[in-house]
Structure formats: structure tokens, C-alpha cells
Amino acid sequence: MPSSEAAPLRGTCPGMCPAEEFARRRREGRLHRLELGAGREADPALAVKEYSRPAAGMAPPRPEEPRPPDVLLATVRHLLEREDRGSDAGDSAEAAERGAFVTDRLRAVRLDAALQRLPGAPCAALHERALIWLLRAGTRLCAQPPARFDAHLHRAHLQETFAALRRAYREHEDGARPAAQPRFQALFLLYNLGSPVALWETLQLPDAIRTSPDVSTALTINWAFLERNFARFFRLARELPYLPSCALHPHLAGAHRLALMTFSHGFSARNSRYPLARLARLLAMDSVEEAADLCQAHGLTVLEGDVVFQKGSFKDGVPLVHKPSRLLVDGKWGESTLLELSERVCS
């Protein structure tokens, strides 16, 4: 009896961008500057397929439009290499533009993989590398204005990529466990720090993954956060490698606020002062001045190098300010390129 489920689409596009799309965007002047070669000439070898949301009622894509797994993987590696070439752009407008370009093209990669229902191993290889870029971009672009970097949209892309990767792990064809799975399951928990759902899903993992060093460390940090043991939380955060630090970075501002709130209650007493330098070390902040600014922003008084904790003075409604952290993130970046890091970490 024939199967009622249609056979999955198999892409045959040999390049990073379908020829028809390249010709159309070239004709309309819609090629990105990162897709231009020497002399700002259109270069089909540099063009990468744009993300285009599938619309209801449209005809399904033709086989020559999606890219097969080997081309998709080459595309992701190309995007990581392009990022390496522009890594000296810092937090400038150029870095934000480059980030928007890579994010869009990675969404197109994820869509091509979903259209073809790629099996576990090839799908995981794509999403692991995409997550490395997305996690690093979030830390490097966090101080950009919203017009250049939409943090909420970036978080949505990350969560969608995590979901696709974890599905790929569950659907792995031959049952062999990808070598990088414990690392990325740990990154998932760190990025979703404090989430009951993420914690429950992590605790349901097979014993070999749940008890791995990466996941065990992530669980320990998560428990320290939930228990409001901030001295231990920031001590463990200092010891994390670069990539897990990127996953934890979005929670640092919130953890700093919760720590100050906890100390405002715990150390609230008449004539009681707490050394500001000690507080900066405990919260793993880059400078004493940064710790002073944080305290004053939350209504706490700083006098002669000390902070005066008064629970009645603490302001809880201050907007969180996400900023780079050299001690907890940026200072851990080594000499390798992003492409080298991805190849070392991924399956």
C-alpha cells in the first residue's frame, strides 16, 4: 500500500544562492555588499540565499531551489568565515549590518533544512554551527541601539535554532549520539537559565548526557541561580569557557539586580556598609566604577568606597542594561577564529 505521506523534497541547488534568485536580485539591485566581489561587482560565488517566509497558497519549491546538506554546510562555514573577516568591526554599525546579514542567511539555511526534513546528523551539523554564531553575536551586539540590533528578534532566532537542533538530536538516524550533544544541551540550559521547562527537559536527558561534565556544570550554575547563591553563581560563571559564557551573558544583568536586591535585604542595618571593591569582585564586574554605577542606578547610596544597603531604598523597576563583560565573556576569547572554534566544538 503506498504511503499517505509525500516523499520529502530533495534539494539540488549546487550553489549558496539559486541562480534564478541571484539573477533577480542582481537585476533589482538587492545584492548585499557582502555578496559583492572586487570592484563591488556582483559575484555568484559570494551570494547567499535570502530568507523568504513561505506564504500560504504558494506552490511548493522546486528541487533546484533548496540546497542539499553538503551545500548548506558549506554555506554556514562561508558565513562564519565572513564574520571572521569583519571581527575587527567591534560594536560599530558595520558589525550590526554584518550581523543582520548573517542572521537572515542562517534563517534561510534553517528553512531549507526544514523543507527537506533533513535527518538528524546533517541537520545537527548545521544548527550547531549556527548557534555558535548566534550566541557570540548576541554578546558582541548587545550594546547596539534597537534600530541596529533587535534583541527580542535575536532571542527568537536562537530559541528556534535550539529547538531545531534538539529535534535533530532526538531524530538521529543510526542512534549514535553526536559528540557535541552534551555541550549544546548545556548551552540550552544556560541560555534558558532559571526556566522550569528547560530544567525539566534537561533532567529528562539520558544519563550519559545529563551526567556529562558540560551539563553537570550548567545544572550547578542553574541551581546556584535558583537558590540565590550569587557568590557561588558568579564564581562558577568566571570559570566557564567562552561559548557557555556567551550563553549565560543575557542573564548577567538580571543576576546583578537580584544579587543587589538580596544584599539590600540581608545587609540592611543602621550604619552598616559593604566595601564596594568587594562587591565588584563578588559580582564579577569589570571595575569598581561599574559596580558603583549599578548600585546608584538602583537607588543605593555609595559613600567613600562603600555601599549602603537599605531595603527601603532599593529600586526594582530600573530597566535592565545589557552590556559587554570583559571578565565574564570577552576576555575568554582566544586566538582562534570563529570558524576554527565551530569546527572544534561541533559534531
TrEMBL record:
This protein's species is Podarcis lilfordi
Record's superkingdom? Eukaryota
**GO terms under biological process:** centrosome duplication; spindle assembly
Its Gene Ontology cellular component terms are: centrosome; nucleus; spindle
The record's annotation in Gene3D superfamilies points to: 1.25.40.990
The name on file for this protein is PCI domain-containing protein
Residue ranges constituting the PCI domain according to the UniProt record: 157-326
Q: Where is the signal peptide?
A: none
